[in-house]
Every structure is written in C-alpha cells, then in structure tokens.
Amino acid sequence: MSEYAWSVPGGLVERPGIVPGAPEIWVYADRFSYFGGDTVSIRVHTTAEEYDLEIVRDGARPQQVAQYVGLPGKQQQTPADAYAVGCDWSESLAVEIDPKWTSGMYLVLVRMLHEGVTIEREGFFVVKAREPEHADFVLIHTTSTMLAYNDWGGANHYRGVPDGSGDVPTPISSTQRPVARGMLRKPEGAARNIHTDTPGIGWIPRHPPYEWAWVNGYSRHHADAFWATYERPFTVWAEEQGFRVHHVTQHDLHNDPSALHGYSCAVVVGHDEYWSWEMRDRIDDFVEEGGGLARFGGNFLWQVRLENDAQVCYKNPFDDPMREVDPTRVTTAWDSPEVARPGAWTMGLTGMAGVYNRYGATTPRSSGGFTVYRPDHWALNGTDLYYGDNFGIAPICVAGFEMDGVDFTFRKGQPYATGVDGAPEDLEIIAMAPAVSGSRDKWNGKVPIGAPFAEVQGIIECFYGSEPPDHLRDLEYGSGMVACHKRGLGSVFNAGSTEWVNGLIHHDPFTERITANVLNLFAARISSPNTKEK
Questions:
Q1: 372, 389 in Cβ contact below 8 A?
Q2: H-assigned helices in 302-353
Q3: For the chain, which has fewer Cβ within 10 Å, the N-terminal or C-terminal residue?
Q4: Distance of CA 22 to the CA centre of its chain
Q5: Mean pLDDT of 222-234
Q6: Distance CA 247, CA 460 (A)
C-alpha cells in the first residue's frame, strides 16, 4: 500500500535536543482558557540566556496587551514522551488577566536572538467572557482536534511514536506542551489541504501543505487543525463584518455545563473531527433549549475522553480498555455499534458519509464548490443562486479537504436523507458536492497519497467485521452537504466542509452571504424567515 503523504521522511520534529546545538525556544500556558482576573501560568524552555515575551489579542486588528523584555532563559527537562505525559516545565512567568481584556484568542509570542537572527515561537490561551449578552455569538475553538494533530514532541493521534517518524500513533495527547508550529501563526498564503488547480491527463498527485511545511520548517500537520488555518480567518472576517464575537474552547464545554448559557448562537469553524461525550451533551442541550448552532466545518467523526491533562483516543474500539467498562464511552467513531450515538443526531450530517474532495487524488477535477438543490431555502436568501448553480468553486474550493454528509436518495430532482444513519427526519439538504472515502492507488505504491481507500475499509471492518450495514457496505462514493434541521426549540445549520472558511478568506460573495444569513438569524439580528418545507 502507498504511504501517507504526510509520512514522507524528513520535515520538522519539535522537541528539546532534537538537533544538538540548535537554538530552541517554546512556550505553553497551563490551561487553554481563563476568565478576566485569573492568572495564567506560562512555561518557557529556551537555550537563550534571555528572551522577550509579548501577549497579543489576535483577530482583524491584533492588539498587544502585554510585553516583557529580557526575561531569564532556562532549559527545561523534558520527557522523551512529552506528547503523552506532558512537559512538566516549571513556571517562567505568571500573568494576571486584566478584566478589561476582551474575550478572544491571545497569542503568547516568545523571541530569542541567536547569532543576530530573531527566532520566534508562540503559545496561546483563550479569554472567556462573563456577560454573554454582549455578543452576537460564541465561537467554540476546536481544541480537541488540535490535540489530535498536535505533533509537538514527536507524535499525535496519527503518527510519530516513538521518535517522530513512522505511522504509529499515540492514543494519549497531553495538553501540557507547546502547539506544533503553524497551528497558531503562519504567513498569509500558506498552502491549505486542497489543490486549487485542475490537473491534466497523466497527472500525479501533489500535496501542497506538506511540501510547504517541509520547505519552510513547519509541522506537517500545520493545515490540519486550529487557529491559523480555520478559526482565525473566520474571526477576522466576522470582526470586519461588525459581529461581536465571544470565545470558548471545546474543553470549556466538556468541563462546564453552563459554558454556552446566555448565548443564542454558537459557532464551530473548520475541522472539528474530535469531541467528547460531554461536549456533545452541551451542544445538544444548547440546541434543544432554543440555541442556534452554526457549523461552518466538517469531518465530525471521533469520540475522545479527557483524563487529567490529556486526551485519549484509541480509534480501534478493541484497543480501548474502556470497552470492558462502558462501551458507549469507547474512543472510536460515533457511528460505531459500541458508541451507538450517530454523529448525525447532533450535527445533521456525519463524517462517515462524505469525506474527501480536492485532497490529493480524491475528486481532483471536481468543481471544488457546492451544487444548489434547494434554492428557496432561507440560508440562500439574497444570493441569487438557482437550482443547479455552483458556488465556491476552484480556485477557492469551499467544498474541500474533508466533508460531512448522510445516506441519501433523490426524488423529483432533490436529495432526501434516508435516515438509516441517524439523520434527522426534517433534514433539508441545501447543496451537495461529490466526495470519496479515500484515494485509489493508481501508482502501485510509488506515489504517496493522502487518504488511502483501504483506510476507511479497515475502519468499517473493525467495527462490523465482514457484515457491515448496507449503507456502509463498499462505501467509496458519497457527498459533502450543506444542510439544516431543527432540534427541540433550536436549529442546526451545517456547511459540512472544512474549507468553507476559504470562501470568506477570498470574499466569495455566495459563501459570505450564506454565512451572514445564518449568523444574523441565529443571533436574532433578523426576524425568522418562512422556511420552505419539504
């Protein structure tokens, strides 16, 4: 079988001592989020005798809120498996959060000078608000998916054990370590997990994000998750549009049943592949009680557990010791028979039924956009989109990388969910884009491909053996979807694509208008429209 594209030898492995004699500086905070008045414990490792530290509230107009110059450097002892057990670095600086600091993503920038060259790295923390009525919506940062892909220290939930090479994953991902380079900050124009050109005959797949990472010294997983790729461009766009945004993390949802209380609209952006049972409970309760969930993301797939200062995800249910204790909490796919809590129950769509578009050898010549099937839906008001129109097409590719869908059929030219995978009865499929569950290897193992088809086959066989349900049998072709449904007193809008935000980055007028329609309605900035029923 062809190797994963992200496993090509070489590239950045971040941990102290990996390159003897090389300059080093890294930073992390002891928690992901705080309220005003809390104290942040900042941990720094550096080979420099002294370093500078700056704290910046990031967004459309980045604002420096604190600066420290000439702090004493310290080389910290770091376990070889810090990716799992944490770094356990001592505190370098304690910073009390001024209650005047507004809710947002705060970057902790550290700088050292080495032979006349400035070397920078970054950490983060989120400041939460105590007064939800002052916001149009709250953005939920995807800290669990970040932990799944964070390979600082050498390994993540996909690869790297024990020395940063190879495809042996760690099922344990610690919160007490820095974040891989590129997930928090990187140059504008850095390659994303899509290819935007339309290849000719005889094409051999390329993987721009990995090539960019190898050339520029960033984590090979820089484009897979978190702030720099997803939440930041969305936040910049939303702030420029005049929306008042508050911020929390998935970990806040897990730990605090009241994390979403007082908000009328909650937003998820980009890649939110990993959730805990408790996180889902908070979302379900929020919508049931009348909230609007606006999900501009894709690939809702895996259950995780949070234990102490780490995230647990075995994926293979037979590897997780929890299987003998409580099968519903096994860290595997939501749609598996052990967990029996289909992803579509919460999001309307599931990562099992859509998946890849414009990623490596998956649908390489698709339009890259969505095709409209319900032009009269309220989310499309003011777009002037007609039945069969495409929007967000290449080179923007809003329907890209990983997408969510459901099992469906067509009646009189419109798609309907069959419901066999837990899709809500009232699900309205607004637009669709072709997707495949993996790449066929047409190059006999000579070309690295991004997502082998054999991988999803192996996952399904792991769940069901040789007799999967009909809707999962030979599951190669599917569809990404934009969809909407009601739940209790609230509603869920699901854009079903990790790359939806790319339409906002490039100011695609259709993507911008749909996004604004959803946010304005769920934030109660406009009156409820008459939704055309199925």
A1: yes
A2: 344-347
A3: N
A4: 32
A5: 98
A6: 36
Contacts of 303 (CB under 8 A, 6+ apart): 274, 275, 276, 277, 313, 329, 330, 331, 332, 333, 334, 339, 341
Q: What is the pLDDT of residues 265-282, one digit of tens each?
A: 999 999 999 999 999 999
Q: Give the closest residue to 105 by CA, choosing from 7, 11, 183, 193.
A: 183
3-state SS record for 268-315 = EEEECCEEEHHHHHHHHHHHHCCCEEEEEEECCCEEEEEECCEEECCC
Residue type, 271: H
- How much is the CA Rg of the chain, to the nearest whole Å? 22
DSSP characters over 378-390: GGGTTS---TT-E
* Cα–Cα distance, 524 to 515 (Å, whole number): 14
Contact 380, 514 (CB under 8 A): yes
- What is the C-alpha end-to-end distance of the chain, expressed in Å? 45
Find how far residue 413's CA is from the centre of its chain.
33
Query: How many other C-beta atoms lie within 10 A of the C-beta of residue 438?
Result: 22
* Cα 281–chain centre separation: 19
28: tokens are 């992390």
Question: What token pair was written down for 492?
Answer: 């869920």
Q: Tens of pLDDT along 3-48?
A: 677 787 778 999 999 999 999 999 999 999 999 999 999 999 999 9
- Phi-psi region at 59: left, alpha or beta (left = phi > 0; alpha = psi -120 to 50): left
Average pLDDT, the chain: 94
Answer yes or no: pTM beyond 0.85. yes
Asked if 47 contacts 24 with a C-beta cutoff of 8 angstroms, the reply is yes
Q: Strand pairing partners for 42?
A: 29, 93
**What's the CA gap between 320 and 312, in Å, rounded?**
9
Secondary structure class of 521 (helix, strand, coil): helix
Q: Quick one: pLDDT band at residue 54, thresholds 50, 70, 90?
A: very high
CA gap 301, 348 in Å, rounded: 12
Q: Which amino acid is at 135?
A: A
